[in-house]
Design brief:
The chain has helices at 3-6, 25-38, 44-60, 65-88, 105-111, 154-180, 183-193, 204-233, 239-275, 295-314, and strands spanning 143-147, 150-153. It is mainly alpha-helical. InterPro entries: ABC/ECF_trnsptr_transmembrane.
């Protein structure tokens, strides 16, 4: 078991270099923020459209099938189960729904009969009015499907589509950004976008340095977890004889050892930075990437403006 390779989410794909890799990290970050904000107060048509855009971007970027199949397959399965469970769940409206129009013309005539008081017959000079024919509409039905204990209403189906689409967009857009952007590019792009905050004395460099170290620390955490799990598996522990109390005691010991190893790794990283003179981020800055907008970046910005235009035109929630 190799957690560094089998973990389906949050990994960076170094090869091959796709057109998503070559985009400026600032442009990709703005695209990510757009995906994470445009589905707010949007209709289901727009939320489903965001899912389609993410899938098309993955396929057109020619990301290897083994990568997107591993990452997208489990997520699509999860979203499908969320869609199914939310669709058959109660919609939260505990009322009985009745048709607003009468079922037939006879009910309308019986309800509109005059009272027992005599009325004057209409004059022969004035032609009598023709009876108005009412048309009952049976096309609309609040209950989409009903079979046995399963009942799908329009509200539950709407909530199911909304929830599953938002879940896919939230997870996969972030994962696609991490898949095609190196950690150093992420921090460099965020630092560039946060430069205006220096006017309010916000420690931009310290924040980006902390973010860089945290992104670099994730593989170390996975490595320590992997080593501890392997050490437990190689000891061939009989879990049935230990029982729940014994198994919990072993896993608490493993968790304590993991915490000690991570603190030791953090201390080693801090000592290595101090030895190399990184005592202040403002005085010892390492420029990882030279950020510069190219032609493909301007094309991506144009498509981003088009995306927001379509969102304002057809994506508003009614």
């Amino acid at each position: 078991m190799d957690l560094l390779r089998s973990l389906p989410l949050g990994l960076y794909l170094e090869q091959p270099q796709t057109w998503l890799h070559k985009l400026d990290p600032r442009v990709k970050f703005i695209w990510l923020m757009s995906f994470l904000t445009t589905y707010i107060y949007a209709n289901n048509l727009w939320r489903v459209l965001l899912v389609i855009v993410l899938i098309v971007a993955t396929l057109t970027a020619r990301i290897p099938r083994r990568v997107w199949q591993q990452q997208m397959g489990w997520l699509l399965m999860l979203c499908f189960f969320v869609l199914l469970i939310a669709a058959i769940s109660p919609d939260g409206l505990g009322i009985s729904y009745q048709p607003r129009l009468p079922n037939s013309d006879s009910e309308l005539v019986s309800n509109s009969k005059p009272s027992s008081t005599p009325t004057q017959p209409p004059s022969t000079d004035v032609p009598a009015e023709r009876p108005v024919k009412t048309q009952t509409s049976q096309d609309y039905s609040y209950i989409v499907f009903a079979g046995g204990p399963v009942r799908v209403t329009r509200r539950s189906l709407d909530l199911a589509i909304s929830l599953s689409a938002m879940l896919f967009t939230l997870i996969y857009s972030t994962n696609l950004y991490l898949l095609t952007t190196a950690p150093e590019e992420i921090t460099a792009g965020i630092e560039s976008l946060m430069q205006p905050l220096r006017r309010w004395k916000v420690p931009v460099t310290e924040i980006t340095l902390t973010l860089t170290l945290s992104l670099r620390f994730i593989p170390l955490v996975l490595e320590e977890v992997q080593n501890l799990i392997r050490s437990v598996m190689t000891r061939a522990i009989n879990w049935k004889k230990l029982g729940i109390k014994g198994a919990a005691k072993i896993w608490l010991i493993v968790a304590e050892r993991l915490l000690k190893n991570l603190l030791l790794r953090a201390e080693q990283m801090a000592n290595a930075m101090m030895v190399r003179g990184f005592t202040s981020p403002n005085e010892h800055r390492v420029q990882w990437h030279n950020l510069r907008l190219t032609g493909r970046d301007w094309v991506a910005i144009a498509f981003l403006i088009l995306l927001w235009g379509v969102r304002l035109a057809i994506g508003n929630q009614v």
